[in-house]
Amino acid sequence: MNCYYTRLILLFLCALHMPGLFAQPLTNYTPYTNDSLQLVSIKNDIRKNYLEDSASISGENKKQLIGIYRDRYQNLADMFKEKEFINNPEADGYLQGLVAQIMNSNPQLKKLGTRFLFSRVFWPNAFSSGEGTIVFNIGLFAKLNTESEAVFTLCHELAHLYLDHSTRGILHYVNTVNSKDFQEQLKEIKKSKYEVNKQLENWKRDWCLKAAGMDVSMKTKPILLASALCKIPDTI
Question: Which of 57, 114, 147, 228 has the fewest CB atoms within 10 Å, i.e. is most exposed?
């Protein structure tokens, strides 16, 4: 039998006669602690931005727009409530260090006043909420091979924010669903006698694709702008 597997079997047998072996505490492990005061400050800043953005809305679709902004804010507020954000000094210091390199090479981004946060969520994703907060899931960070990939991810989300994709997308959606053309087509489908639900589903899908086409047709795409933003020193 292979010597390696023999040692494993012997170790396992020894463990059976040593009940306390696996009950010993991990003396070298120290749980991370968040900076709770800083998180409260960030949360208050996000709420302040939400209230200011809502107060600035005017026009006939004001109520609907405020509702969407409220949902956007609530999504972040729920993440704070569920304690999803990680901002202990070591992790946050590393993230902010990468951000500082990007900002120093691209001073035009500093005026955005962006907040960057690590999330403990293991789903591989990062996103810009659109109001100034960028969230980097630890699940995505763990899958990256180099710091360059982490920097590119940050730049990609900064590009969305810099191009104001979220706000423009919200306005485009609200204007579309309240347009005369949209409402007339909706009425015609509801008058149909057959497969109304199926027609509505296909029609809504087509409208969503048209709305998505707004971003696709933009002259400056996030992937291209992200490449341009990554003017950082090779020392990273």
Answer: 228
Residue type, 127: F
Residue 49 near residue 161, CB atoms below 8 Å: no
Residue 41 to residue 47: CA distance in whole angstroms: 10
Model confidence pLDDT, tens digit, residues 5-27? 433 333 343 444 444 444 445 45
User: DSSP secondary structure string, 83-149?
Assistant: T-EE--HHHHHHHHHHHHHHHHH-GGGGGG--EEEEE---SS-EEE-SSSEEEEEHHHHTT--SHHH
CB atoms within 10 A of CB 234: 5
pTM to 2 decimals? 0.72
Q: How far apart are CA 193 and CA 119, in angstroms?
A: 49
> In this structure, are residues 65 and 57 in contact, taking their beta carbons and an 8 Å threshold?
yes
pLDDT in tens, 184-222: 777 776 666 556 566 656 656 665 555 544 444 444 444
